Every structure is written in structure tokens, then in C-alpha cells.
């Protein structure tokens, strides 16, 4: 299997698992908290992947594939826009700022965990 074909398969398999996992979270976590949850968990996972000694195939499968399908910037952006369009600027700002801070903290936690593995 060529390298580009293998990468495509890894992204596809990881993406399938990420999409199913995202759907599972959506079924269990209500409203915008679902988006926050997947983005923070995905940030933790990416932090681990960025600092742990994983190979290119694992990074492609888990990082690009799984995390790419699991996390969502577009739903986050739509959520902020909907709140702002409804005139709820304070909540929109808190949601935007809080999600970004929580995701950055998630990356830091994941990075610390990944650093312990390496």
C-alpha cells in the first residue's frame, strides 16, 4: 500500500471512530455543552499526541482522523454567532472565551500527560 493510500485509510478509519464518538457525546451531553466537551477532550488528546512519542501512522490515525472528526470548530462558531444574533452578547463572549481557555488548558493537560509518557 502506498504511503498516501495508507494515510488516507488511516484518516478514514480514525475519522469514522471520531464521528461515532462525537455522535455518542451529542446523545449524552445537552446543548452547547456537547461542543465544549468534544473540543476540550479533543484538545487533551491532541496535546498528548503532540508530546508523546507516537509514530506518523498513529498521529495520522488519532490526530488527523479521530480528533479531526471528533472536534468541531464550526459548531463552536455557529453557537457563538447564534447567541450574538439573539442579542445575548455577554453569553456569546463567555462561551467563546470560556471554550478557548478550556481547550488551551486541555492541550496543556494533554501535553503534560504526553510528556510523562515520553
Automatic annotation (TrEMBL):
Subcellular location: Cell membrane
GO cellular component: plasma membrane
Reaction it catalyzes: fluoride(in) = fluoride(out)
Domain of life: Archaea
Sequence positions that bind Na(+): 68, 71
Principal location class: membrane
InterPro entries: FluC (IPR003691)
Any one GO molecular function term: metal ion binding
Entry membrane topology: Multi-pass membrane protein
The keyword Transport belongs to this UniProt entry's keyword annotation: yes
Claim: NAD is one of the keywords in the record: no
GO biological process: cellular detoxification of fluoride
Stretches that traverse the bilayer: 32-52, 59-81, 93-117
Protein family (similarity comment): Belongs to the fluoride channel Fluc/FEX (TC 1.A.43) family.
Name the record gives this protein: Fluoride-specific ion channel FluC
Organism: Haloferax chudinovii
